[in-house]
Design brief:
With 578 residues, the chain is of the alpha+beta class. The protein is built from 19 helices and 20 strands.
């Protein structure tokens, strides 16, 4: 990396790095450092009357106060922070005081990883701290952390820009309180979910992510090319069809917690790569699944929050079972006043027009109903609500309702105005399933790029016989949002998908060379803030020379400084460039 691409702090840290090596100190030692305690536990277990406890801790140095021969530092480990008291004569008992005077006071920087051996005590101000007897550099940090500073109760230099936080999650986790807690709570959600399913006797499995047919949901897939087979493949949009194959194969219940991929939009509630849990259990129906789901979510909420309620965006949401159950057409009638029971596709189009909705000819009956529900109903269900009994046209993988023609045994769980889960009494009639797939292909022919494709192997599996089965899919990212009180999906993903970083445009080496600038001086001009050839066309030659030659001197580059006439020539040629 060219030194001119670095900030002054970064340059200083690299100089310190070299000084450390010159002192014979390895800034990145390989040996194990035998820690035996964590900050939070040290504080919780401290007793004033007990014998001083010997500890060995390690972490990032997050602050430092040097006061002559004694200093204080704050170390941040994986569980929190603790103060360390360091004196020159304790860590340098001999004549050589360089470990304190040079290493600690001058060559260590905020963000460096250090190891400390010493004993625990309470300072005169009452803070439980570690009195260092030995200090070891474990890893040198070359980039400065954006440490928040406080003055008169006002915080400065906060690392709070969402785009920067999501791009540099590693920095976000270090400097912002509470971020790690969200992801620890995410781990609790997954652990509780997995333990509950395991205790119920269901088997966790893995199914292909690369698939020859994008099936199991209505969504636009990501497409890739499989070179070995010379075949187009799809990133899976759902695990459903493979999990049902395993039910055909004789498993009582199977589940998978894994990534799905949908080539659709990104917003506060959607990420194109997301985590989903799908569960399928033989001899069950959607009524059983509703009861199982509400008990599962209640248990997860208690594990994460210690109670059955969680505040989300100023609203208290109760996950205490049971939840309201409401047929979708009744929900639409309740929210819009229109009864869609028995209505044809043309009738529903007329209702959409009366509701001033934007629709198009590619939308079939199911899509139209889905659009009405999405616009007028979905966002109104804050407390957990099972929306049930969807029309056949909306549910190509669902068993027909046992008592209501034209409907299916399906539910979606709505919480805080968004879908959290989707479940069925699974369709196990292979002839009916094939007809539903054919209807989906007709929608595709009309232009619906989210319609399902016929999966002939799945139909073959059904023909061998699948027992009565209920299945559910739960969006893990949305579930974590609810359980942690977050309102954007990016806050519960370590590394959400982002647009490419914007970089300042720069003229190429060839473009600078065309106006006579030597290649070695191009980075210098960039360092002065001149990124494009056009940037220098209105600059005074003396100022340009002063700026550029000042950088040459400051960074001790040792180049021969061009005369002012040369800078003037560059400027004159730049003025002729369009």
């Amino acid at each position: 990396m060219n030194i001119l691409e670095l900030s002054e702090q970064e340059i200083g840290r690299r100089q310190s790095l070299q000084e450390l090596r010159d002192m014979g100190i390895d800034p990145y030692p390989a040996a194990e450092y035998p820690t035996n305690a964590f900050s939070r536990d040290i504080k919780a277990e401290f007793q004033d009357e007990a014998e001083p406890r010997e500890v060995c801790i390690a972490g990032r140095m997050m602050s430092r106060r040097v006061m002559g021969k004694a200093s204080f530092a704050e170390i941040q480990d994986s569980k929190g922070r603790i103060q360390v008291y360091i004196t020159r004569d304790d860590i340098c008992p001999g004549e050589d005081k360089d470990l304190y005077n040079k290493l600690f006071k001058r060559l260590l920087d905020i963000g460096d990883f250090v190891g400390v051996k010493g004993f625990v005590f309470r300072t005169q101000t009452g803070e439980v701290s570690v009195h260092a007897k030995e200090i070891t550099l474990l890893s040198k940090s070359l980039k400065p952390l954006p440490i928040v500073k406080y003055k008169d109760g006002v915080a400065y230099d906060k690392f709070e820009d969402p785009e920067l936080r999501y791009r540099q999650r590693y920095v976000d986790l270090v400097v912002n309180d509470g971020i790690k807690d969200t992801f620890l709570q995410r781990a609790t959600v997954l652990r509780t979910l997995r333990n509950t399913l395991d205790e119920a006797g269901y088997t966790e499995v893995e199914t292909p992510i690369l698939q020859s047919i994008a099936g199991g949901a209505s969504a636009r897939p990501f497409i890739t090319h499989f070179n070995a087979l010379n075949q187009e493949m799809y990133m899976r949009i759902a695990t459903e069809l493979y999990l049902k194959r395993l039910i055909v194969g004789g498993f009582e219940g199977v589940y998978e917690i894994g990534k799905n991929f949908r080539n659709e939009g990104m917003d506060r509630n959607h990420n194109p790569e997301f985590t989903c849990m799908e569960l399928y259990v033989q001899y069950k129906d959607y009524n059983w699944m509703m009861s199982f789901t509400e008990q599962l979510l209640e248990k997860i909420c208690v594990a994460v929050n210690g109670k059955t309620e969680r505040e989300v965006d100023g609203k208290i949401i109760s996950f205490k079972a049971p939840y309201r159950r409401l047929p979708i057409l009744d929900a639409i009638k309740e929210k819009t006043g229109y009864d869609l029971n028995g209505k044809t596709e043309d009738d529903i189009r007329e209702v959409c027009k009366k509701l001033d909705m934007e629709i198009d000819d590619t939308m079939g009956k199911g899509k139209l109903i889905d659009e009405i529900f999405g616009e007028f109903c979905e966002g109104t269900f804050i407390q957990p609500t099972f929306i049930t009994d969807y029309p056949v046209e909306m549910s190509p993988l669902t068993k027909k309702h046992r008592s209501q023609p034209g409907l299916t045994e399906r539910f979606e769980l709505m919480v805080n105005g968004k879908e959290l889960a989707n479940a069925y009494s699974e369709l196990n009639d292979p002839i009916d399933q094939e007809e539903r797939f054919i209807d989906q292909m007709k929608l595709a022919d009309k232009g619906d790029d989210e319609a399902m494709v016929i999966d002939q192997d799945f139909l073959r599996a059904l023909q061998y016989g699948m027992p009565p089965t209920s299945g559910i899919g739960i969006g893990i990212d949305r579930l974590v949002m609810l359980m942690t009180g977050q309102t954007t999906i990016q806050e519960v993903l370590f590394f959400p998908q982002m647009k490419p970083e914007k970089k300042a445009p720069k003229s190429s080496v060839a473009e600078w060379s065309a106006i006579g600038v030597p290649e070695i001086w191009i980075p210098i001009l960039n360092k002065c803030g001149y990124y494009l050839v056009q940037d220098i066309k209105d600059v005074n030659p003396q100022k340009l020379q002063q700026d550029a030659c000042g950088v040459n001197k400051k960074y001790k580059l040792g180049y021969d400084n061009p005369k002012v006439d040369e800078f003037a020539a560059w400027i004159e040629k730049a003025q002729s460039v369009e």
